[in-house]
Amino acid sequence: MVITQAKKEKRGTNLVEGLLAVWESSVQATHLFLREGDVERLRPFVKQGLQEVPLLFYAEENGAPCAFLGMDSDSIEMLFVAAEARGRGIGSALMRQALALGASRVDVNEQNPQALGFYRRFGFEVKSRDAVDSLGLPYPILHCTLSEKE
Fold first, then answer.
1. Residue 132 has pLDDT above 80, yes or no
2. Which of 129, 115, 39 is nearest to 76 (CA)?
3. Structure-model confidence comparison of residues 8 and 124, the more confident one
4. Measured in whole angstroms, how far is the alpha carbon of residue 91 from the centre of its chain?
5. Is residue 149's pLDDT more than 60?
6. Is the torsion defined by CA of 97, 135, 43, 53 positive or negative?
7. What is the pLDDT of residue 1?
8. What domains appear along the chain, each with residue ranges and CATH number?
9. What is the 8-class DSSP label of residue 148?
10. Whole-structure pTM over 0.90, yes or no?
11. Is residue 32 very low, low, confident or very high in pLDDT (cuts 50, 70, 90)?
12. Between the CA of residue 69 and those of 6, 66, 75, 116, what are the distances in Å?
């Protein structure tokens, strides 16, 4: 596995399309609560996010992307691991990179308990909840912050 930072000016079509495929694979494995048509509806927003998020790291295996993490300041904006790459420590490697860069906030779908458990293992705690996501869809969002170490 190789982790690479994708500079904004070097995020070409091939990379973005490869990362979109990772996103879709991940979502199909973990976001079982989505309704028919939601993936297609969300795709343009994810594509825009991939192009615009200030910090973007992606992991590759055998020359193809298998996971990515995007950050804006101290907030993890996106973390997705392709279905076939899950459970091998790739998400954790990306998470350690984000924490080393000062990540202390993340939002997670309430209906994705695996993701919430993952972030909790890294010390994140739920601080607040919104009943809908940023698009107004009925998918509650949990706002999490890194707990203070004593």
1. yes
2. 115
3. 124
4. 9
5. no
6. negative
7. 86
8. 2-146 (3.40.630.30)
9. P
10. yes
11. confident
12. 10, 11, 11, 16
Residue 128 burial class via C-beta count within 10 angstroms: exposed 0-12, middle 13-18, buried 19 and up: exposed
Concatenating the DSSP letter of every residue in 70-114 gives: EEETTEEEEEEE-GGGTTSSHHHHHHHHHHHTT--EEEEETT-HH
Order of strands, sheet of 124-130, starting from the edge strand that comes earlier in the sequence: 2-5, 55-61, 64-72, 75-81, 105-109, 141-146, 124-130
- The answer for residues whose C-beta is within 8 angstroms of residue 62's C-beta and 6 or more apart is none
Give how far the C-alpha of residue 22 lies from the chain's centroid of Cα atoms, to the nearest Å: 10
| Predicted pLDDT of residue 150 | 41
Rg value, the chain, Cα: 15
pLDDT tens-digit readout, 47-70: 999 999 999 999 999 999 999 999
| Token output for 147 | 């707990």
Maximum CA extent, the chain: 45
Closest CA to 133 of 13, 36, 34, 56: 34
